[in-house]
Amino acid sequence: MNQSPELTPDTTSAIGAEASNHVHVIVIAPILLFGYYIALFGALIAVIGEASLLTRLTWRNGSDAAANDSAAD
Predict the structure, then answer these.
(1) Percentage of the chain surpassing pLDDT 70?
(2) Domains identified in the chain, total number
């Protein structure tokens, strides 16, 4: 039931290692979050570019709109 003195340094070093791991997680997390924001910004640029491309391909000039409608009929 009594703990032997040999186990005390191991327990202390394990607690120290765990605290050290928490510090590394805090240091790495902003880097991962920064990458997430870069990916989100890239996706936003892709959506805007796609909408711009579709608008350019399907947009009709005002003067040609009547001619295009009559040609389709």
Answers:
(1) 44
(2) 1
